[in-house]
Amino acid sequence: MALHPEEIKCEVRMTGITLTGLALRHGFSPSACRKALVVPCPRVDRVIAKRIGRKLHEVWPERYDTRGRRIFTKVNSSALQSVPHRLSTQAV
């Protein structure tokens, strides 16, 4: 079961640093670690997992397999068909 984002934040803080501080220490933008709580960011995910002493799949089992490889989900092709194209064939 995945950790709740608040659990991740708590575990990071218990190591003596904030998410912002951790991001800055590793050369990321100040919000990078907060963003990684909701959106996969492999480089940042690794930093967070290492900091809290867990494996990637323990923190984010929906993102990583037991070998630490990203899990990619297939995109529903019918959903893509409903997305409007940026370039229209019609003249404006």
Automatic annotation (TrEMBL):
InterPro entries: Lambda_DNA-bd_dom_sf, Ner_HTH_dom. It comes from the Bacteria. Residues 3-72 form the Ner winged helix-turn-helix DNA-binding domain. Belongs to the ner transcriptional regulatory family. Pfam families: HTH_35 (PF13693). Keywords: DNA-binding, Transcription, Transcription regulation. This is Helix-turn-helix domain-containing protein. Coiled coil: none annotated. SUPFAM superfamilies: lambda repressor-like DNA-binding domains.
